Amino acid sequence: MSNPRHVLGISGGKDSAALAIYLKNRYPSLDISYYYCETDKELDETYKLIENLKNYLGKDIVKIKASQDTHEDQFDHFLKLYGGFLPSSNSRWCTREMKIEPFEDFVGDMPTLSYVGIRGDEDRDGYISHKTNIQSIFPFRRNIWSEEVISKTLNNKNIPFLNDVCSKLFSKKKKDNLINILSEPLSLQYDQNRKLNDLLTVSISGFNHLVFEFLKTTDLPISFLEDYPLLNNEDVLVRADIFKLLEDSGVGVPKYYNKIEFTVDGKKGYYSRSRSGCYFCFFQQKIEWVWLFENHTELFRKAMNYEKNGYTWMQDERLEDLIKPERIKQIKHDQLKKSAGSLHSKSSFLIDILEEAEGEGCAACFI
Questions:
Q1: Mind listing the domains of the chain with CATH numbers?
Q2: Is the pLDDT at 351 greater than 60, yes or no?
Q3: Could you give the percent of the chain with pLDDT greater than 90?
Q4: DSSP β-bridge partners for residue 62
Q5: Burial of 116 (0-12, 13-18, 19+ CB in 10 A)
Q6: 242 touches 257 (CB < 8 A)
């Protein structure tokens, strides 16, 4: 048996970069290997962030290329293999070919803990590898474990084991509270999410220690460890914390997150990019395509040139139609209405979260 490897994928976006900074500062004993999966189609700001992060971490960030045997850009190479068929939300071959498979090849068969930058204000797990030697950890969340781990741990058959661990680990008050919750079997009336929340409310670190003791009985990567520093982690980081980490560290926030003012029919609005990853990401909102056209016209033209033989980035509209003056005006008006409607019911902070959530799912999100 050997200790598992620790890895962290840098997508070029804010969350994974902030996680690298956070873990370096908070848990310097972890020997983490950093990597990013190259598509050759990222914005310059993405590469700038990676370089800044390298300098801050004092470690290399390994570039992983899915195909080592081509002189073409990675995306263009795979696009040819797919006969010009552009990726889409229904056929995310770009994620599979240039992100997931290269990452899993990079890891190989060694037991590995993969750190994922999903925040405490997000309700998702992201990509979970099907390889049993890769285990995802979520340090920014109240619950650092994956859905799979929680499901295994809280299985009703484990109630006696977990109660016994409680009796050995905790003082009377905490022990009694945890055992009271653990002893209630999962049912339609008392589902896994409710039970998880009740346990975390009693003690986040206490629950982490329970899970860790159970995982020692499995063959998951963390079972190879005698101890794990994140068991006592009770931090929950949200979007505002991420920006603060990037700014305070000097790594900086990628400029494409900065909101830029636009004017349409005398009314002012704002737009920006909500994600890292390829400049032509098909998960972009219409207003983000307009942002790309008006701020990176050359890249927009390149994206437009990919639309041929009936293949388009969006199912309902070609890029050449989206940039017609009247259409741009309509999209900007739609953005104004959306922002105005949200302002009536939500804080500006929540608006930012909702706008970002709409753009989740790009090729980098699995890390």
A1: 5-145+233-249 (3.40.50.620), 150-231 (no CATH), 256-358 (no CATH)
A2: no
A3: 84
A4: 35
A5: buried
A6: no
Contact between 78 and 97 (Cβ < 8 Å)? yes
Please state the pTM of the whole predicted model.
0.90
Summarize the confidence of residues 284-309 as an average pLDDT. Answer: 96
Q: What CA–CA distances, in Å, run from 226 to 212, 246, 292, 330, 331?
A: 10, 32, 49, 59, 56
**Can you list the positions of beta strands (E) in 23-118?**
32-37, 61-64, 112-115
Contact 338, 98 (CB under 8 A): no
pLDDT digits (tens, 9 = 90+) for 206-233: 999 999 999 999 999 999 999 999 999 9
Q: Which residue has the tokens 């800044």?
A: 52
pLDDT at 181 over 70: yes
Q: What is the rounded distance in angstroms from the CA atom of residue 367 to the CA atom of residue 193?
A: 23
Locate 366 and state its tokens. Answer: 């699995």
Cβ-defined contacts of 149-155 (< 8 Å, 24+): 149/211, 149/215, 149/220, 150/192, 150/196, 150/211, 151/192, 152/214, 152/218, 153/210, 153/211, 153/214, 153/215, 154/186, 154/192, 154/195, 154/196, 155/186
Weakest mean pLDDT among 87-91, 129-133, 349-353: 349-353
Quick check: helix, strand or coil at residue 329? helix
Q: Are 73 and 40 in contact (CB under 8 A)?
A: yes
User: Is 134 in a helix, a strand, or coil?
Assistant: strand
